Fold this protein.
Amino acid sequence: MSVAFLWGLFSSLDEKKTVESVLKDDLEWADTIFSSILLAVVVMYFLVQAFKIPSGSMRDTLLEGDHLFVNKAIYGMKVPLAGKRMLKFRDVKRGDIVVFTFPSENPAEQHCGGSQYGKDFIKRMMGMPGDTIEFREGALFINGKQAENEVYAKYSDPVRIPGPERKSIGEQEYQQLWESRNLGRAYGESIRDTFGPVKVPPNSYFAVGDNRDHSCDSRFWGPVPEKSIKGRAMFIYWPPGRMVGVR
């Protein structure tokens, strides 16, 4: 057996090992990348969502352009296609700042200056299921008592808007208009400061913007069903100068 033959044999074996090594490394990298993508998808779907503040309705708690993380697991992780939640840590509490999908299944509905179908909103949940909610000259009343310690509530308009004329409509019809998201379309801005009373339906919440005079919220388009809720705002991560927990 010649030296040249042996050299060629060993060279081919080395090349084979090199190819196998490269393929093994590529497969390991592919597996790592796939696992990372899968983990990111699971985290984004079940645990955390990034959200950008689109308007000034939550001033001065949240400003336009703030980027924050939303805890999607705290109220229970949504099971795909089942419409149910699992592993709930706690229920929504009064005062929680919550991200939710606008509560309408009709793309043709017009609210807040246009169709809000499928859009994410962020508001403070002030009415719990069964609560009676009312606004008197801009002040929020819950179950007949004025809400206390609302240090976050901002009133920038020095003028209170007179309430609508309600002699021709009873409480039941008023409630139905509100629950069907037609109250705002019927009365417009006149219900901003003089609203209700209405009763929050079961498994639903009353959402209000902190910037009370400039917020299109549950006063105008009705209650937020529990199924529409995505999660609770945790903290602002951008811009760096505003990094803070959200309360």
Summary: The radius of gyration is 27 Å.
